[in-house]
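Our preliminary data section would be incomplete without showing what the modeling component actually yields. Below, a chain of 187 amino acids is followed by its predicted structure, encoded as C-alpha cells that our downstream tools consume directly.
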Amino acid sequence: MKIKLSLLVIAFLAVSKLFGQGTDNCVTSVILSGYSEKAYISEPITVQQLDLILKCGIKAPSGKNIQPWKFTVIKDETTMKEIIKDVVPGNVLIIVSGIVTENGTTPDFDCGLATESMFVAAHSVGLGARIYSGPAGIINSNKELFQIPSGYMAVVALRIGNIDKSVDAVSAASPRKKFEEVVNYKN
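Predicted structure:
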C-alpha cells in the first residue's frame, strides 16, 4: 500500500509539474502568473528596466525578420493622459508602430509579438503592464504630438509601471477561460 501511495504521489507531482502552473522555468512562470494590472503607483521605473524591456521587444520574431516596428517611449504624464486617463507619474507608455506597407496596412501581428515580448519582460522584472489597442486611432490622428515616425502607424500602446502591491492579483484579474473551453484536439 505504501509503494502504491508513493507511486501515486510521484505520478501526481509529475503531472502537476508538466501541466500545472507551477514550474521551474522562469518564462512560463511569468506568463502563467501574469495579468494586466490596473492599479499603479508613482514610483518610476528605472532606465535599466526600460532598456531591458525595449531590448526584448527588439528581439521579438517577425515575418521574414523584417522587424517592421518602431517604439516611441513617452514619459511625459500630460502626453500620456491624452491616451490613457488614469496614468500616474512614473508610468511609461510605449507606442508600438508598424511600417505602412505598399497596400496601406501595417504588420499588426509582428507588432503584437513585439508588444507581448515587452509585456512579459515587464512582468519578469516585477513591473506591471497593460496593452491598449483602442487608442491607436487617437495616436494616429495626432502623430506629431506622439512623435510617430513618418511612414508608420500606431498599432498598440503598452503601459508599464510599478504596481500597487496591496491589490490582490487573483481578485483584481478577470477570470480566465478553462483549458477545455479554448483547446480542442483533432485525432
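Residues 4-21 have pLDDT under 50 and may be disordered. Residues 2-19 form the longest helix (18 residues). Preliminary results of this kind motivate Aim 1 of the renewal.
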